[in-house]
Amino acid sequence: MSIIDWDTVDEWLDDWLSMINKAFDNAMQILLVSPFDSSITAIDTALAAVEGVALVMVSMFFAIQLCNEAMLLRIQSYEQVFKIFFKFILAKVIVQNARGLMAIIYNSFNTVASDLIEDSYGFLSGFTTSDLLPEPDDEGFLGLNYLVKYLETMPTLLILMGACWVINLILIGRIFEIVVYTAVSPIPLATFAAEGWHDTAKGFIKSYAAVCLQGLVVVLMFYSFSQVVDLLGGESTIGITIVALSLALGVAKSGQWARQALGCV
Q1: 127 and 120 in contact (C-beta within 8 Å)?
Q2: Other C-beta atoms within 10 Å of 60: how many?
Q3: Sign of the torsion angle spanned by Cα atoms 43, 46, 48, 52
């Protein structure tokens, strides 16, 4: 008489795969949540206060540059005056439309990630319980071989579940980060009007784009999981465990990779 049979082990593994896929699906739903949704009013409330400060900064930058050019006798034609006024007007338009500009950057990255989610087959849907744990030829004493084999898969299952929870936390934090970036965006964008301060605005846009890119980086890593497993030796427990651990570490480093890709660090 066996303490445990193979059907029971197979059911346990199937439950684990279902839990991991559910955790991943929850993360993908978080990725599809837009911080620019009308129900999130924090951005509009903050922008109403920050935009006034940014417009004051633009006016100050304009006045300072105009005074400097006049004092140094650099203004010798109407074209030069028009150039200064044009820069002032352009900066004012950018500040007043900061929310829309940030939404364009966000949507350009998130649309690609959303399409990948819809077109791909899923995270672990390409695996079966037999891939993670082939049935032993011998059940052993009281079926203990089945239990031992099941326990051998636990590190892999726990790592995969941990990676899914990490991605949930990262993507939730990413939403808050995008909200904060968007809410304060008029201030760094106002530096477009300042002579010699353009790098501040450019650096802010690159950092914001890196936060948006992070979601795409995470999705790509998860959807390439099964392909990487095949390339590194097939669907063995040891191979899957190593790739799963690398995946968990990669998710934790996704923000840094996104910033490096855009030259932010």
Answers
A1: no
A2: 13
A3: negative
